[in-house]
Design goal:
Elements (H helix, E strand, L loop, with lengths): L1 H16 L5 H21 L2 H4 L3 E9 L2 E6 H13 L1 E8 L4 E4 L5 E14 L2 E16 L2 E11 L2 H16 L9 E9 L4 E9 L2 E8 L2 E8 L4 E4 L4 E3 L4 H8 L3 H6 L6 E11 L2 E9 L5 E7 L5 E7 L6 E12 L2 E11 L2 E12 L4 H4 L10
Parallel strand pairs: 1-7
Antiparallel strand pairs: 1-2, 3-5, 4-5, 5-6, 6-7, 8-9, 8-20, 9-10, 10-11, 11-12, 12-13, 14-15, 15-16, 16-17, 17-18, 18-19, 19-20
Length: about 375
C-alpha cells in the first residue's frame, strides 16, 4: 500500500512539473507550416511545398481516401507548379486552428481563392481544406488533408463579394443607395436620364424632348407615370420592370443579385477583347443575363441582356472610373442594340444620399437640371 501511495505521489509530482502548453505559440508554429506551403506556390518549389508533410499522409478528395508517399508526389507537383503562374492567393476567412490539450494533435481549417494562369489559360479556383497535424519529435507534420473546391454557384458568390471589396465596398452600408444623372445621346437625338436605386427600390426618369416618363419599382409600391400626358398606372408589369432593372447601371455594378437571380460562374471568357470572369444570372422571365468582370482588376466591364426569344441582345459597357466616397464608380456607359448605340455621360452621382420620398416622387426630379 505504501509503495502504491509513493508511486501516485511521484506521478503527481512529475505531472505538476510539466510546463503548461502555450497554445498561442503552438498555433503560430502550425501557421508557419501552412505559410511555408503557400510560399512554395510562388517559389514553384515542390520540395518546399511538402516540407510540412509527414513522409506519408492521407489525401481526401472526390469521395476517395488515398495514402500518399511524399517522394512519389513531388515530381507531379513540380510539373504543376512549373505550369502555373500564381497571381493571387486570397485568404477568405481567418483560419481555424484546434489543438489537443497535450499539444500532440491539431486541426487546421483554411479557405482561399486562387487566381492565375495554368498552361497559358486563366483560372479561378475557390478552395477550402482541412489538414490534421501530429507532433513528431517536437515538430508539427501534416498527416492528412481534405480538399474541397467550390462549385459554380459558390464561386459566383465568392467572386461577387471580392468584386465589391475591390471596388471599395465591404458591407451594404458602404453603398446603400445611388443617385445618378446622365446626359445621353442616341442615334437620333439627345435625352436626359435620372436613376435612383437601393436594395429594394429602383426609379428611372427620362426626358426625351416632349416625352417625360417616370418608372418606379419597389418592394411596397410600383407605378408608372407619363408627365407629358398626365397619365400612369399604379402597378408595373414584368416587361417594364426588366426594362428599368437593365438601366440601373450603377446598382448592377455592385449588387446584380438584388435585381437578378441564380448567379452561376460560367468561367473566363472575353468581353470587348478583355479577359473577363463571366457570371450568368436569370431575369424574372428566366432569360439569361451575363455579367463580365476584368480578370486583372475585378472591376465590372458590363453585361449582356437577352431582349427576346430570337436571341437579340443589348450590350452594356462601363467606362471611365473614379473614386466617389472612396468607392470606385464609373462615369460613362453605353448601350449597344444592333447597330444603335446609346451613350450615357453621368455628370451628377451621389452615394448614400437618397431619401425614401425621392423614390415616390411623381412630379419629376429632372426639372432641377
Amino acid at each position: 500500500m505504501i509503495n502504491k501511495i509513493i508511486f501516485i505521489m511521484i506521478t503527481f509530482v512529475m505531472l505538476s512539473c510539466q510546463k503548461p502548453v502555450d497554445i498561442a505559440l503552438e498555433k503560430k508554429k502550425i501557421q508557419d507550416k501552412i505559410d511555408l506551403v503557400v510560399q512554395a506556390h510562388y517559389n514553384k518549389d515542390a520540395i518546399q511545398f511538402f516540407e510540412s508533410n509527414a513522409n506519408e499522409w492521407y489525401d481526401v478528395r472526390n469521395g476517395i481516401v488515398q495514402l500518399i508517399d511524399k517522394s512519389e508526389k513531388i515530381p507531379s507537383t513540380q510539373k504543376y507548379l512549373d505550369n502555373m503562374d500564381f497571381h493571387e492567393m486570397i485568404q477568405r476567412n481567418n483560419p481555424v486552428i484546434e489543438i489537443s490539450d497535450d499539444a500532440t494533435l491539431a486541426s487546421y481549417l483554411g479557405s482561399i481563392t486562387i487566381k492565375g494562369v495554368f498552361n497559358e489559360s486563366p483560372v479561378l479556383w475557390v478552395v477550402a481544406w482541412q489538414s490534421v497535424l501530429k507532433k513528431n519529435k517536437g515538430e508539427w507534420e501534416i498527416i492528412s488533408t481534405t480538399n474541397t473546391e467550390g462549385d459554380n454557384k459558390v464561386t459566383a458568390e465568392v467572386l461577387l463579394d471580392h468584386v465589391r471589396k475591390k471596388m471599395g465596398v465591404i458591407g451594404e452600408n458602404d453603398f446603400s443607395s445611388v443617385y445618378a444623372y446622365a446626359k445621353c445621346r442616341g442615334p437620333e437625338r439627345s435625352f436626359e436620364t435620372l436613376l435612383l436605386s437601393n436594395k429594394k427600390n429602383g426609379r428611372m426618369e427620362q426626358l426625351y424632348e416632349e416625352q417625360h416618363i417616370i418608372l418606379k419599382h419597389g418592394e411596397n409600391t410600383s407605378w408608372t407615370r407619363n408627365l407629358s400626358t398626365n397619365s400612369g398606372e399604379e402597378k408595373m408589369d414584368n416587361e417594364t420592370m426588366v426594362f428599368v432593372n437593365g438601366h440601373e447601371l450603377h446598382w448592377l455594378s455592385f449588387w446584380p443579385e438584388h435585381r437578378y437571380k441564380d448567379p452561376v460562374f460560367k468561367g473566363i471568357s472575353k468581353f470587348n477583347d478583355k479577359t473577363a470572369f463571366q457570371i450568368e444570372f436569370k431575369d424574372v422571365f428566366d432569360k439569361p443575363v451575363h455579367f463580365y468582370y476584368s480578370f486583372n482588376t475585378y472591376l465590372p466591364l458590363g453585361f449582356v441582356l437577352n431582349t427576346n426569344p430570337n436571341g437579340d441582345t443589348v450590350d452594356v459597357t462601363y467606362n471611365v472610373w473614379e473614386k466617389i466616397n472612396n468607392v470606385q464608380i464609373f462615369k460613362k456607359a453605353a448601350f449597344k442594340q444592333g447597330n444603335d448605340i446609346f451613350e450615357y455621360n453621368f455628370t451628377d452621382i451621389k452615394v448614400n444620399q437618397i431619401k425614401s420620398k425621392d423614390f415616390e416622387n411623381k412630379t419629376g426630379l429632372l426639372s432641377q437640371y
